[in-house]
Structures are given as structure tokens and as C-alpha cells.
């Protein structure tokens, strides 16, 4: 891939990212913007500019390309979460619960395209995810009033532009159109009472299936000290998304309420 400044020696790249505190909200943040970045723990990812996914970390790095670039990838996320040695107290007494595997495997695809317009301006678009999590207990798990299903997903459409100020400085910025969806289920599972030989049917406590759209933005700059050293600085604003949909709590309809997602 051609770039305006190709490093021929060992690259020493430093990147500093200032992120909104909201970006870490609820522990749902994903670092799955690119497979190449994941392979190097995203070190210097906002300034290396070895493929188009660099725009996800720092939009200014797009100015380092002098030819169109396309990047596609899929990252598999294998979540290993096991609940062990748990007990649950119900009106019928306290019981030890069996070990439960609540994780699973999910996939986070991404695609980016960068297109230089001239020597100064470069534009790009990307589609990827910044947030997501899923845990699910089995239907018969006695403590599903606290476990149940939690499934949060997001898709980020990034539209960015970069400007090459001179041989050293580049500036960039972009708009993030974020779609988020969430499913939450909390319930008392079907329970058999052996003493009186009756079965209590499942009772839903919380049932939410909602989604929404929010707008964010990102800004960045890259400074090339010399052929062997680059520095990057980026900022991303992550908005709170108001999700709407089918929602009920303790059998009461709360559809008119808004669910805030990170």
C-alpha cells in the first residue's frame, strides 16, 4: 500500500487517545475495530496507517494515504464466563445451584474505505462496532431473576475527512451514526414444588426489546517528527443512546419509557 510518507526504518509510533468517560460505560466497550490492530494490541494504531481501519482510531491518519484503500475483517469473540459455587434463596429455602456457562461466541465484522481526493483532502467511511455484550443463563436456572438474558449490540457508521496541513501536520474529524439494540430478560423460571406436587409457571419480571440511534463525533491529529517517528492525538465523543421498544416490568407496560444505553 502506498502512503505519502513510507517508513523505511524501524517505526517508532506513539499514539495518545483521550476518550470520553462514557466510552467505558457499563463495561460494554469492544476493541474489535480491526484484525491487524488486535494482533498488535492496537499499539500505535492511530498513526501506523498500514490499512484503512486506521480511521477508526484517528481520522487524521487518512491523510497519510495517497491511493484508495479498502479493509475488511471479522473478529470472533469467545466469551468464557462461568458461574460456580452459587446458592439461591427462594421462599422454598436455600439451594446450591449447578455451575453455569453463560458466555458464547459472537462475531464482529468491519469494513473501511479511504479515498484521497487530492494532495490535501481525503475522505473515508467505515462500518464497525464499539459496544456489545451477551450473557445468557439456561431457562431452568433458578436465579434467573438476576441472570436471564442480557444482549447489547451496536453498529457504528463512521463518515470522516482528513486534511494534510503540511509535511508534518494532518488534521481529521468525523461523524458517528450509532445504532444500538438491547434485549433484557429477567424472570422466575418454572418451578416444581415437590411437597405439594404442583408446578408454578414461569413469571416474567423484566422484558425489554428496544433500539435507537444516536450521533457522536471524533477528532484527531497526526504529527510526523521525521521519517521514523509519528505522534497522534485523538478524541471520541460517545453519546448516550435513548432506546425505545417493547418494555415491561413486573407485568406492567413501560413502553413509553426510554432506555439509556452507553
TrEMBL record:
Keywords: Cell outer membrane, Membrane, Signal, Transmembrane, Transmembrane beta strand. It is a multi-pass membrane protein. It comes from the Bacteria. It is found in: Cell outer membrane. It holds the Pfam family Toluene_X. GO terms for molecular function: long-chain fatty acid transporting porin activity. InterPro entries: OMPP1/FadL/TodX. GO terms for cellular component: cell outer membrane. Residues 1-25 form the signal peptide. Belongs to the OmpP1/FadL family. PANTHER family: OUTER MEMBRANE LONG-CHAIN FATTY ACID RECEPTOR FADL FAMILY, OUTER MEMBRANE PROTEIN NMB0088-RELATED. This is Outer membrane protein transport protein.
